[in-house]
Each structure stands twice: as C-alpha cells, then as structure tokens.
Amino acid sequence: MKHINNGDELLLFLEALSNPHRMRIISILSTGRQYVSQLARELGISRPLLYLHLQKLEEANIVTSDMELLESGKAAKYYTLNPFNVQLNEQLIAEMISTLSLKNKP
C-alpha cells in the first residue's frame, strides 16, 4: 500500500494525478495489469504520449512495469497499479510542509 513519507512524495503523487489521461490509466489498471499497446488502444492515444504519462505515474510509485516475452517472441511491457489510499487533508499537508526539499520551496 502506497504511503506518503514526505512533502516531495506528496507533490509527486498529486502531480501524477493531475491529468485526465493519467486518471483514466489508473482506472483501467484498477481492473488488472495491461500491456502498453492495449492501454494505448483503450485510451485512444499514441504510445509515445502514453509512455510520458506512464513515466509520471511510475515516478510517483503509482504504477510498476515489467517485461514479458509473448508466445510470438515479442517482448511486451506490462503495467500494474500499485494499491494506494491517501487521506488528503489539512493535517497531512501541514505535516508534509517541513519535509519539502528546497527545490520545491518558493
């Protein structure tokens, strides 16, 4: 289960969720793992664009990927949703403020 440990992780997590394509990816992956080509077809977006969104989700540890060899001999990259349950409220934000790195402070 995903746990937010500091302000930087909270920002990464929130940024990863701040896009409708990434929210749709999470929704699709909530039903089970998918390979990139199938995800791109379901979303109706190009694979390069999909990879950009998946990279954001992976950086925030919301999804993980692994390669698998198909019967055809081709390698397919699969993505799996990591379970998370983040209670976002003013208390969490107040606790995380002191742990933001300098690059994120105004």
Describe the structure.
This protein has helices spanning 7-17, 20-29, 36-43, 47-59, 90-97, and strands at 34-35, 63-69, 75-81. The protein is of the alpha+beta class. It has a single domain (7-98), classed as Arc Repressor Mutant, subunit A (Orthogonal Bundle). The longest helix is centred in the middle third of the chain and has 13 residues, at 47-59. The two termini are 31 Å apart.
**Strand order within the widest sheet?**
1-3-2
Strand portion:
15-25%
CATH superfamily: Winged helix-like DNA-binding domain superfamily/Winged helix DNA-binding domain
Q: Summarize the main sheet.
A: 3 strands, antiparallel
Counting structural domains, the number is 1
* Number of strand elements: 3
Please trace the helix and strand order, writing H or E for each element: HHEHHEEH
- Nearest-angstrom radius of gyration? 16 Å
| CATH architecture annotation | Orthogonal Bundle
Low-confidence stretches: none
Which shape, going by the Cα principal axes?
Answer: elongated
What is the typical, i.e. mean, pLDDT?
91
Helix proportion range: 40-55%
Number of H/I helices: 5
CATH topology-level fold name:
Arc Repressor Mutant, subunit A
| CATH hierarchy class name | Mainly Alpha
Termini separation: 31 Å
SSE class? alpha+beta
Write the layout of secondary structure elements.
Layout: H1 7-17, H2 20-29, E1 34-35, H3 36-43, H4 47-59, E2 63-69, E3 75-81, H5 90-97
Helix pairs in contact: 1-4
Short description, anyone?
The protein has 106 residues and is of the alpha+beta class. It has five helices and three strands; from the N terminus they run ααβααββα.
